[in-house]
C-alpha cells in the first residue's frame, strides 16, 4: 500500500476535485479533512462512510483511506505531526494535560465516520478553519500564535464530540483521561481478540482485571461487556449498509457465537432485525 510522507510539522491547503486522484494510502502524519462542498463516499479502513458538505474527518498514520467522489468536492486539509500537537498540548498544559493526546487523536471508526457530530460544533469548526487558512496564507505579526490557538480550539471541539459516550460535564482530570483512553482502546481494537482480553486491557491501563469492569461501569453506567457489544453493533450497522457481507459473515466477523445470537442482540439494539435494517428500514426506538 502506498504511504504518503510529509516533512512539515503543519500544513494547510485545499483541493477541488471531480475525481479522487490518490490510491488507497496511509500517511506518516495526522490529517484533518474538511468537506467544504460536494458529496460521495469515504473509504476508511475497509468501512465506507457517506460524506457531505460540513463533514470533518480525522485520519491517523495507522489509517488507510481514499474517497469516491459523486459530486465535485472541495477538500481542505490540515496536516500535522504528533510532535506539533504534543508541543501544542504542552503550551496549553494549564487547560488540559498531555495525557489527553491519545484520547483526542484516537479515531473512532465505529461512529458515523465524521469527527464532529454536533451541528453547532461543526459551524464553529469551519469558522475556525477560515481563520487558520487566512493566517497560514497571509503570514503577519502573531500569525503563528493565532494558528496555534485556533487549531487547539478545533481539536478541543473534536475531543468534546469524541467524549459523548459518557457524561460530557466531567472535568478532564487524571481519572477521566484514563477512562477516555480505555474507551478509545476498546473502540480501536474491538475486533482484535488478543488486545480485547480482559487481562491485556487491565495490564495496558494498570488496573486489576477484577476491577476494570467495575471501573468502566462506575463512569459510563454500563459494563465492559455491554460497551464492547455496543461498539460491535455500531460496526454491524455499517457493514449491513455496505451490503458486502451477508448476516452470517457479519456475525462471524464481529465475533458472535452464531447468527441467531447476533440477530437477537441487534434487534434489542435497533428494534428491528439485521435483515430489515439492511433493506433500509429505520427503527423508531
From TrEMBL:
Domain HTH araC/xylS-type: 180-280
Organism (species): Flavobacterium sediminilitoris
InterPro entries documented for this protein: AraC-bd, Homeodomain-like_sf, HTH-like, HTH_AraC, HTH_AraC-typ_CS, RmlC-like_jellyroll, Tscrpt_reg_AraC-type_HTH
Entry keyword annotation includes Transcription regulation: yes
This protein's name: AraC family transcriptional regulator
Keywords: DNA-binding, Transcription, Transcription regulation
Species lineage: Bacteria, Pseudomonadati, Bacteroidota, Flavobacteriia, Flavobacteriales
Domain of life according to the entry: Bacteria
Amino acid at each position: 500500500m502506498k504511504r504518503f510522507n510529509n516533512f512539515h510539522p503543519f500544513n494547510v491547503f485545499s483541493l477541488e476535485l471531480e475525481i479522487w486522484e490518490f490510491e488507497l494510502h496511509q500517511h506518516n502524519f495526522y490529517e484533518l479533512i474538511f468537506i467544504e462542498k460536494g458529496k460521495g463516499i469515504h473509504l476508511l479502513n475497509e468501512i465506507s462512510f457517506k460524506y457531505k458538505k460540513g463533514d470533518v474527518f480525522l485520519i491517523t498514520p495507522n489509517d488507510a483511506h481514499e474517497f469516491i467522489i459523486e459530486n465535485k468536492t472541495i477538500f481542505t486539509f490540515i496536516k500535522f505531526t504528533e510532535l506539533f500537537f504534543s508541543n501544542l498540548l504542552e503550551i496549553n498544559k494549564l487547560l488540559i494535560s498531555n495525557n489527553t493526546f491519545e484520547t483526542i487523536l484516537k479515531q473512532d471508526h465505529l461512529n458515523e465516520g465524521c469527527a464532529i457530530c454536533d451541528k453547532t460544533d461543526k459551524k464553529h469548526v469551519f469558522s475556525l478553519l477560515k481563520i487558520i487558512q487566512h493566517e497560514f496564507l497571509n503570514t503577519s505579526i502573531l500569525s503563528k500564535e493565532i494558528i496555534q490557538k485556533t487549531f487547539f480550539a478545533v481539536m478541543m471541539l473534536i475531543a468534546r464530540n469524541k467524549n459523548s459516550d459518557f457524561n460530557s460535564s466531567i472535568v478532564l482530570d487524571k481519572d477521566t483521561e484514563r477512562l477516555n483512553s480505555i474507551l478509545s482502546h476498546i473502540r480501536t481494537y474491538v475486533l482484535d481478540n488478543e488486545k480485547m482480553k480482559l487481562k491485556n486491557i487491565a495490564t495496558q491501563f494498570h488496573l486489576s482485571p477484577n476491577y476494570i469492569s467495575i471501573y468502566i461501569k462506575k463512569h459510563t453506567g454500563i459494563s465492559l461487556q455491554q460497551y464492547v457489544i455496543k461498539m460491535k453493533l455500531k460496526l454491524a450497522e455499517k457493514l449491513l449498509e455496505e451490503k458486502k457481507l451477508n448476516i452470517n459473515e457479519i456475525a462471524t466477523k464481529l465475533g458472535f457465537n452464531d447468527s441467531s445470537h447476533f440477530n437477537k442482540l441487534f434487534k434489542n439494539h435497533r428494534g428491528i432485525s439485521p435483515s430489515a435494517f439492511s433493506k433500509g428500514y429505520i427503527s423508531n426506538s
